[in-house]
Amino acid sequence: MHTHILAIDQGTTSTRAIAFDLSFAPKAVAQIELTQHFPKPGWVEHDPAEIWAATVQVCREVIDKVGGPQSIACIGVTNQRETTVVWDRRTGEAVHKAIVWQDRRTSDVCAALKAQGHEAMVQAKTGLLLDPYFSGTKIAAILDATGVRDDADKRANVVFGTIDSFLIWNLTGGKVHATDATNASRTLLFALKPPAWSDDLVALLRVPTSMLPEVKPSAGLFGETDPALFGRAIPITGVAGDQQAALVGHGCLSPGMAKATYGTGCFLVMNAGSEPPVSKNRLLATVGYQIGAETTYALEGSIFSAGSTIQWLKEGLHLINASRESEAMAAALKDNGGVYLVPAFAGLGAPQWNAEARGAIVGLTRDSTAAHVVRAGVEAIAYQTRDLLDALVADGAPRPTTLKVDGGVTANGWAMQFLADICDAPVERPAFQEVTALGAARLAAFGAGLIPSLDARLPGAPAVRWTPSMAAPERERLLAGWRAAVRGVLAHAEG
Ligand code: ADP
Question: Which fold has domain 4-243?
């Protein structure tokens, strides 16, 4: 009976379910890839019906593998953040495809709001920037594109939710329209303190208040699944956006603890404690997790290209045949030969936030080889992380004593050692890499009363730890080369 916790991880590229036992050991996994729709350049959409069907399927598979619905004590949900769904509450059907976080169609709206001078207010209230990335401007885009504004505004038939909210609605058979504070804090509509929907933001972004889900703490009862779905009503007791769930999964539960997830891009998130941080370096302030009435805030910075730089070395330049070859190639060189690669393929994220910047390889000589370019791509991941850490420290955060990492790139031991050297901090990778799902499972277990605190039964020693061993002058020399390369890229963007 009730021997497992089911975590649903609805990501940008796939939908996954993982069943954990009560010691947080993973026992079963199922995964389905998600179709990406690109209707126009810069537009990215998902089909909410496909997401829901895949969610049911992966849950059923995993529930079967661990002995049926009686084995599941509770469900935790974690999800791609900011992606926006608008659906009709009478039918449960989406009125438009989901607009994905990567979608840039509301750039003009954001630029206009910035030109009108709203960004300072938006940042002060929400901790975010006026960028199409967040949900807020995507909602009006759907209302205006589909002509359902009146249905939303006058008749309250049409509602909004991020993916967690859409899944909770469907899992509960349309009974519960709710989200958690971490997901709400990515919408541009949510004030950080006190944590609540902001009337000013809702008015500014033209979102009818009746569309908004109820915001709940990240752990606690959201509702029960419709018994027709899995054969039993199972409580949903934990919800958080993917990066925040990873923060919890890594056990970064005290102020100053930080994690970095290296997939396609990199997300660095630091626990900032009980007061919302104010960034002067264009980092994002966000809700880390909310437990009861207690909100823990976080500071976040992102790098657009991390693993995707390695993919480009493979698919764009054909310098390697597989991502893992980057490790041996970088390691075989005695130094970087003065070559730097600034992977600003899609602009630069924090702390530069320059959308016009484009990439560059600098420092080439007649002695430079393919290996130097590959190494420069791997090194860039560490330099960009260091830039984020410096921005965090400039914003008043402590320098983290260790950096907890996960994601595909962390398979590259050379890259992780170089990261430790450049950041001058130990880097730790846990044995179990699915920390996002693990975080959702922990929140759900805590919300269901199965563990007394979020950090109960945390795993002991990390699987791998890389300790910095580079001498300070060498680190400074490399950082000077990198910073000069970034200055060059920014100068080029100025034209
Ligand atoms: P996502 O969740 O964003 O799809 P993953 O966490 O699965 O990403 O990581 C995939 C990324 O990791 C790819 O971009 C790939 O190039 C990169 N990657 C995988 N193995 C290595 C390696 N050994 N060295 C460097 N990069 C790697």
Answer: Nucleotidyltransferase; domain 5 (3.30.420)
CA angle 134, 110, 359 (to 5 degrees): 80
Closest residue by Cα to residue 237 from 471, 451, 456: 451
Task: Identify which of 3, 32, 33, 35 has the alpha carbon closest to the alpha carbon of residue 19.
Answer: 3
- The per-residue pLDDT for 113 is 95
Beta bridge partners of 161: 85
Cα 239 to averaged position of ligand 1 atoms, centre (Å): 26
Backbone angles phi, psi at 201, to 5 degrees: -70, -40
φ/ψ (deg, to 5) at 76: -115, 145
- How many helices (H) does the chain have, and how many strands (E)? 16, 23
CA-wise closest residue to 262 among 416, 133, 103, 392: 416
**Which phi and psi angles does 266 have, rounded to 5°?**
-135, 135
pLDDT score, position 456: 84
Please tell me the number of Cα atoms within 13 Å of 169 on its side-chain side.
29
What integer pLDDT is reported at residue 353 of this predicted model? Answer: 80
Check residue 460 and give its pLDDT. 65
Which CATH number is 251-429+462-495 given?
3.30.420.40
Query: Using a 6 Å CB cutoff, which residues line ligand 1?
Result: 13, 263-264, 307-308, 310-311, 323-324, 326-327, 407-409, 411-412, 415
Residue by residue, what is the 3-state secondary structure of 148-197?
CHHHHHCCCCEEEEEHHHHHHHHHCCCCCCEEEHHHHCCCCCEECCCCEE
Distance CA 320, CA 347 (A): 24
> Which amino acid residue places its CA nearest to atom 2 of ligand 1?
263
The CA distance from 162 to 142, in Å, is 13
CA distance 50 to 45: 12
DSSP string spanning 31-53? EEE---B-SSTT--EE-HHHHHH
From residue 459, give the alpha-carbon distance in Å to each of 19, 25, 71, 126, 251. Answer: 17, 10, 23, 34, 9
- pLDDT given for residue 266 in this prediction: 92
Domain ranges of the chain: 4-243, 251-429+462-495
Residue closest by Cα to atom 23 of ligand 1: 324
Relative to the CA of 13, which ligand 1 atom is closest? 4
Instruction: Give the atom of ligand 1 at the shortest distance from the alpha carbon of 262.
Output: 6
Mean pLDDT, 10 residues at a time, the chain of 495 residues: 94 94 94 92 92 98 96 97 95 94 90 94 94 93 88 83 98 97 97 96 94 97 97 97 96 94 92 92 94 95 90 95 96 97 88 85 97 98 96 88 93 97 96 92 96 82 89 98 96 88
Q: CA 7, CA 236: separation in Å to the nearest integer?
A: 10
